[in-house]
Specification:
With 454 residues, the chain is an alpha/beta fold. Helix content is 41%, strand content 11%. It binds flavin mononucleotide (FMN) and iron/sulfur cluster.
């Protein structure tokens, strides 16, 4: 894609109709029509095929095709569940917040359709602890549609039962991981479960469960509204549809922007007003904190699953963080690793120890105490950890490190040689850390010193 690209307004349609968080106004623009159009008119199998034709892929990180997930559950008898994942606790992520606060009925419409499609009579909307307005709006929307007979024992007179409820998250990043999330609903601590079995086979209370991202669920009624072929016509063939891109960092107008999937980094930057203060683009994380850096060489790469995959990048949730040419990439990577170190649940050794060690080595480099051994160790550990742990937090934590070393090695080497950032117009550092200063210079801490008993 080159030149400018027209925004779409399917997911963020509340920007044209600001009161659609109320049922009457949502219905006025055709809300909940999709249920009348498909439930009882086509089979659940046929509806799953619509998702396959539309190529709808999950917007919560891994890009799993919705049809594949649903398909695994179709033949399993008994109780099933749908969970809408609105935990959204990664730095720079805020698209689901706007959707839950401003367009909760489109979300619930997607939840009802999914529940019918997989035969679930109960669905839970899981909302981040700090998202108070989202909790209020989602709870009110659930009440409105339950009172109106849209949800409940006889969904819009179709004879299909779907009860809805809201659950407020425990308040940690790990609560968004689908199996940790399920554990918290069951009243346990948020420790992810080993997989397989995946939740579609063994989920909430041991029953088949679909955990789906908020934006994914908001897109499901659109497949009915536009038709599977119409949905597929928006964006690239392998992962089409409208997409909410969240952009933050060094841009003039940070925020959520809806475009067809596959817009380029350059086009998104332009939509967000470019980089302020006359500075230049240096790098971006394209899939949230748990993703790889891209550089100015990648400005014309399409922001979608396959295009970023092809260059060793990561699309994830489509959450873009921009760093201008005054950013110290060693400091930025250290700041990211501090988040992962603090949010690791501690269950797996490579993650618990690895995030602490990587953070420490980065802090050494950033604090002017680093050596080549720190750079070597960062390279080795960020290559060794992925694939060895119970959930994807550790893999994600390694991505900024490995890609940072790949793209900005001269900057890392400069820190070793000179004990500071390369000369420039006063490099901007992200907030500094406490750990670097807690050890005497030259002293290599033991693991016990690194993390006293939790
Ligand atoms: C540490 C961690 C945190 C996560 N947080 C979220 C989250 O807040 N929201 C979300 O939808 N998915 C999150 N995920 C991904 C979920 O486990 C799951 O894959 C996703 O909800 C599936 O939805 P989708 O198929 O619609 O993309 C997280 C994964 C990990 C490893
Ligand atoms: S990878 Fe990290 S966050 Fe995930 S289960 Fe293991 S220790 Fe916990």
């Amino acid at each position: 894609m080159s030149g400018s690209v027209e925004p779409t307004c399917y997911l963020l349609r509340h920007r044209q109709h600001p009161t659609i968080h109320r049922l009457a106004d949502y219905r006025r623009i055709g809300g909940y029509k999709s249920i009348e159009q498909v439930v009882g008119r086509i089979s659940r199998e046929e509806f799953t095929r619509w998702m396959a034709t539309a190529h709808l892929r999950g917007r919560g990180g891994a890009g799993q095709p919705v049809a594949k997930k649903w398909g695994r559950m179709l033949d399993i008898p008994g109780q099933r569940y749908v969970i809408a994942n609105g935990d959204e606790s990664e730095p720079g992520a805020f698209k689901d917040r706007e959707l839950m606060e401003c367009n909760p009925h489109q979300l619930l419409e997607g939840v009802l359709l999914s529940a019918w499609a997989v035969g679930a009579t109960r669905a839970i909307i899981y909302v981040r602890l700090e998202y108070e307005l989202a909790q209020e709006r989602v709870a009110r929307a659930i009440k409105e549609i339950t009172d109106a007979g849209i949800a409940g024992p006889d969904m819009m007179g179709t004879g299909v039962e779907v009860e809805l409820e809201m659950f407020v998250s425990g308040g940690a990043y790990i609560c968004g991981e689908q199996t940790a999330l399920i554990e918290t609903i069951e009243g346990k601590l948020p420790y992810p479960r080993p997989k397989p079995p995946y939740p579609t086979i063994n989920g909430l209370w041991g029953r088949p469960t679909v955990v789906q991202n908020i934006e994914t669920l908001c897109a499901i009624p659109l497949v009915v509204e536009l038709g599977p072929e119409g949905f597929k016509a928006i964006g690239p063939a392998t992962a089409p549809g409208p997409k909410v891109y969240s952009i933050s960092g060094h841009v003039a107008h940070p925020g959520n922007y809806e475009f067809p999937m596959g817009i380029t980094m350059r086009q998104l930057l332009e939509a967000a007003g470019g980089i302020p203060n006359g500075h230049k683009f240096k790098a971006a994380l394209t899939g949230g904190a748990a993703s790889a850096f891209i550089t100015a060489d990648h400005l014309d790469i399409a922001l979608d699953f396959d295009s970023l995959d092809a260059i060793g990048g990561e699309f994830g949730t489509g959450t873009v963080m921009v760093f201008d040419d005054h950013t110290c990439m060693v400091g930025a990577t250290q700041s990211l690793l501090r988040f992962f170190r603090d949010e690791s649940c501690g269950k797996c050794t490579p993650c618990r120890e690895g995030t602490q060690l990587m953070h420490l080595w980065l802090a050494n480099l950033e604090g002017g105490r680093g050596s080549m051994a720190d750079i070597d160790a960062l390279g080795r550990l960020s290559g060794l950890v992925p694939g060895t742990t119970c959930c994807a937090l550790a893999d994600g934590a390694c991505l900024p490190v490995s890609s940072g070393l790949r793209h900005f090695m001269p900057e890392f080497l400069y820190h070793v040689e000179h004990g500071c950032c390369p000369p420039g117009e006063g490099h901007i550092h992200l907030p500094h850390d406490d750990v670097a200063g807690t050890f005497h210079e030259g002293h290599v801490p033991t693991l016990t010193e690194l993390h006293p008993r939790r």
